[in-house]
Design brief:
CATH superfamily of the domain at 82-227: set domain protein methyltransferase, domain 1
EC number: 2.1.1.364
CATH topology of the domain at 82-227: set domain protein methyltransferase, domain 1
GO biological process, one term: inflammatory response
Helix content: 40-55%
CATH class of the domain at 82-227: Alpha Beta
Order of helices and strands: HEHEEEHHHHHHHHEEEEEEHEHHEEHHHH
Pfam families: Rubis-subs-bind, SET
Subunit structure: Forms a ternary complex with TBK1 and ZNF268; the interaction with TBK1 is ZNF268-dependent and leads to TBK1 monomethylation.
Structural class: mainly alpha
Number of helices: 17
Shape: globular
Keywords: Cytoplasm, Inflammatory response, Methyltransferase, Nucleus, S-adenosyl-L-methionine, Transferase
C-alpha cells in the first residue's frame, strides 16, 4: 500500500511539475468562455488550442494534442475577422464615405476600435474587446524615464513613432467631430489621445496581413490589415516556422505549422525574422536568445574613432552615404556585420590608399595596415558598446529601486540590454580570436 501511495504521490508531483512547465489552462475563465461562444456563433470550432498562461511568455495558446509539421493549427472564418469591410458595414461607414479627406485604412480601424470600446455592452464585438490588452508595452506607451534608457537607435525610432501618433491624432480631430451624431457624449471625451494610442497599438501589434481591394473612400495607403480574434493569442518564437494565409476556398484565415509541438506545449508562430529592437518597437516584447538579433552602431559612435582632421574624411563619408553604409551597421551573434567592417575599412584607408576605395566595397584586402586598423577600431567600438550597455543596466537597477511604478517598463528595457550584452560579449570573443589567429 505504501509503495503504491508513493508512486501516486510521485505521479501527482510529476503532473504538477509538467503543468507548471507547460502553462496554466485559462479556458474556464469567463472572458474566454464568452469569446469561444461568440466565435462559435460565427462558425469557428476549435479543439486543437486552448488559452493558457505561460511563465515565459504570459498569455498564449496551448496544444491539446501533439502537433506535427504540416498540421492545420487554426482556421478562422472570414466572419470572425475585423477588417475595413467591418468598419464600412457599421454605423461609421456612411461618415467615412462622405468625409472630404479620405481617411487611411489604419485610421478607420482605430476609429472603429475606440467607438466599439466606448459602446461597452452594446458592442457586438465586446467578447473580443474584453480579451484585448488594456495597456501595451510598445515604446510609444513607455514612461519617458524608461524610453531614455533605450539604445540610441531604438530611442530615436520610438520618438518618431510617438510623433507620428500625435500627428495622426491632431489631423483626425475634425473627422472625429464629424461623428458627433453617433454619440450622446462629446466626441472630444471619447476620441482622446490615449484612446487613439491604445487603438493604434492594438492594430500595430495584433493585425495579420490580409490584402483588400483599394476603395475610393480610403486614402492610398495599402489596406492590408485584419484583426483576428483568438488567433492573435498565438505568441512569437524566432525558432518556429508557420505558413499563414487567407484561403479563398474555405473563406478562412489559416495557419499551418512547419514545426512540431508536444501535447500541452505552447503553440508559437513566427512574426518574421525580426531583431529584438524591432520586436520591442512594433510588438512590445523581447525574445530571449533571438538568432536574428543584433546591436546597432550609430554613425556618431563610428566617427569617434577617426581623426576629425583627416583630409579625406568628408569624401569617405560621402561615399558611405552614397552606398547606404552609414545605417544598419551591426554586431551579431557571429561578430561584426559585413556592412560595419566595410564602413570601418573605408574610414581606415590611409591617404596613399584612398584611391582604392572601390576595392574596399568589393571586400578586397587593401593592406595589412588597413586590415589591422579596421580590426582594432572594431574591437574598440565593441568594448565601448559593452561599457555603455553595462552603464545602462546600472542606471536601470538604480531606477527600479527608486521608482516602483516603472518596474514593468524598466524590466523590459533591462531585458533588451541584457540580450545586447550577450551579443556584444560574443562579438568581442570572436574579434579577440580573429586577432590572435591573424
Amino acid at each position: 500500500m505504501r509503495r503504491s501511495k508513493g508512486r501516486t504521490g510521485r505521479k501527482r508531483r510529476r503532473k504538477h511539475l509538467q503543468s507548471f512547465m507547460d502553462g496554466v489552462n485559462c479556458s474556464h475563465k469567463l472572458e474566454y468562455i464568452k469569446l469561444k461562444k461568440w466565435l462559435k456563433d460565427r462558425g469557428f470550432e476549435d479543439n486543437t488550442l486552448r488559452p493558457a498562461e505561460f511563465r515565459g511568455t504570459g498569455r498564449g495558446l496551448m496544444a491539446t494534442k501533439a502537433l506535427q509539421a504540416g498540421d492545420l493549427i487554426i482556421s478562422l472564418p472570414e466572419k470572425c475577422l475585423l477588417t475595413t469591410t467591418t468598419v464600412l458595414d457599421s454605423s461609421l461607414g456612411g461618415y467615412i464615405m462622405k468625409w472630404r479627406t479620405p481617411v487611411s485604412p489604419l485610421m478607420a480601424l482605430c476609429t472603429f476600435l475606440v467607438a466599439e470600446r466606448h459602446a461597452g455592452d452594446k458592442s457586438p464585438w465586446k467578447p473580443y474587446l474584453d480579451v484585448l490588452p488594456q495597456t501595451y508595452t510598445c515604446p510609444v506607451c513607455l514612461e519617458q524615464d524608461a524610453v531614455n534608457l533605450l539604445p540610441e537607435p531604438l530611442r530615436k525610432k520610438a520618438q518618431e513613432q510617438r510623433m507620428m501618433i500625435h500627428e495622426l491624432f491632431v489631423s483626425s480631430k475634425a473627422f472625429f467631430s464629424s461623428l458627433q451624431p453617433l454619440f450622446a457624449e462629446n466626441t472630444g471625451t471619447i476620441f482622446t489621445y490615449s484612446a487613439l494610442e491604445w487603438a493604434w497599438c492594438t492594430v500595430n501589434t495584433r493585425t495579420i496581413y490580409m490584402k483588400h481591394p483599394q476603395r475610393e473612400c480610403f486614402s492610398l495607403e495599402p489596406d492590408v490589415y485584419a484583426l483576428a480574434p483568438y488567433l492573435d493569442l498565438l505568441n512569437h518564437s524566432p525558432n518556429v516556422q508557420a505558413k499563414a494565409a487567407f484561403n479563398e476556398q474555405t473563406k478562412s484565415y489559416e495557419i499551418r505549422t512547419n514545426s512540431q509541438c508536444r501535447k500541452y506545449g505552447e503553440v508559437f508562430i513566427c512574426y518574421g525574422p525580426h531583431d529584438n529592437q524591432r520586436l520591442l518597437l512594433e510588438y512590445g516584447f523581447v525574445a530571449m536568445d533571438n538568432p536574428h538579433s543584433s546591436v546597432y552602431v550609430s554613425s556618431d559612435t563610428l566617427l569617434k574613432y577617426f581623426p576629425p582632421l583627416d583630409k579625406q574624411r568628408k569624401a569617405k563619408l560621402s561615399i558611405l552615404k552614397d552606398h547606404d553604409l552609414l545605417e544598419n551597421l551591426t554586431f551579431g551573434w557571429d561578430g561584426p556585420s559585413w556592412r560595419l567592417l566595410t564602413a570601418l575599412k573605408l574610414l581606415s584607408l590611409g591617404a596613399d590608399e584612398f584611391s582604392c576605395w572601390r576595392r574596399t566595397l568589393l571586400g578586397d584586402v587593401i593592406s595589412a595596415t588597413n586590415q589591422e586598423l579596421t580590426w582594432n577600431v572594431t574591437a574598440k567600438i565593441c568594448h565601448f558598446l559593452i561599457e555603455e550597455t553595462q552603464q545602462a543596466l546600472l542606471q536601470i537597477s538604480q531606477l527600479k529601486r527608486s521608482k516602483e511604478n516603472l518596474k514593468p517598463h524598466l524590466a523590459l528595457v533591462e531585458m533588451l540590454h541584457l540580450e545586447d550584452l550577450k551579443i556584444l560579449q560574443k562579438s568581442a570573443e570572436i574579434l579577440c580570436n580573429s586577432n590572435m589567429a591573424t
